[in-house]
Amino acid sequence: LSGPLQRRWPVEPLRDRQAGAVDVIYTLIHRLGLFKLAMFFSVEQWLTQGIGWLRAHGLPTLQVDQLWPGVTDRAAVSFLIYLVLFDLLGYLLHRAQHRWHWWWQLHALHHSQRQMTMWSDNRNHLLDSVMTDVALVLAAILIGVAPAQFVALVALTQLLESLHHANLRWSWGRVGNRLLISPSFHRRHHAVALGHDPDVAGAGHHPYGANYGVLFPWWDMLLGSADWRAGSQATGIDDQVLHGRDYGRGFWAQQWLGLKRLAGVDRAPRPTVGPAGPLRSL
After folding, report:
1. Backbone dihedral region of 44: left (phi > 0), alpha (psi from -120 to 50 degrees) or beta?
2. What tens digit of pLDDT does each residue of 192-237 get?
3. CA of 6: how far to CAs of 89, 173, 257, in Å?
4. In the Cβ-directed half-sphere of 41, how many Cα atoms lie within 13 Å?
5. What residues form DSSP beta bridges with 191?
6. Which of 232, 173, 278 is nearest to 10 (CA)?
7. In angstroms, rounded to a whole number, what is the distance separating the alpha carbons of residues 254 and 37?
8. Phi and psi (nearest 5°) for 235?
């Protein structure tokens, strides 16, 4: 569905189809949900046994669906609670990916895509994906998410995230934008002008970027990281645009360069504050 929509209401014409083709590879690896689902079902049994042991010994455990018996244990209610809690956790993890220098070295790969499409959500370093997925899976098991609900959470989240990254000029309006993240809101998160890199904090409107929300903008609104300006600027990373830093063209090159950045072998060029020129509106 997103394909025809991107052709009908694009933010920019696609000039580099090879970059988009590489993102399809990431989709096959990441967003079929194989990482999360495999981890969930491989550790669910022993973690569930551990929770049972804690309960048997009178130690407290967190089971969200039991907070209000008769209400929160209804499937629809518990699913909505899990969705909101997971969105909060996703926001905190995403903000940490930008705030912590070492994690940014991996997450930068996601922001190195200069032409955003519905596939761009899937461009992530494998190590970055493993860390975030482990956190989400452990949280799901510890708060008592049922396997069927976990599958539904993964499917819904990935569907909406793909829409948010699409090459679309869409916005939900003043009210709608505050209920659900739009492609325009999230594209602003990818704008070069924001200055995402911790090494150039303060170069943009917000230190370390803005609009970290996964599904809902509520956490950005509550924690002061929302930027409501239209997402129509060029996307990418400061040092990539201003200094030509290489983030790799192919899958394996991108993975290898991410590890080199993490190890401190591939260092960023000297930061530039107040970028101009390439940070144009589209």
Report:
1. alpha
2. 877 666 555 444 445 668 999 999 999 999 999 999 988 778 899 9
3. 30, 19, 30
4. 10
5. 235
6. 232
7. 25
8. -110, 155
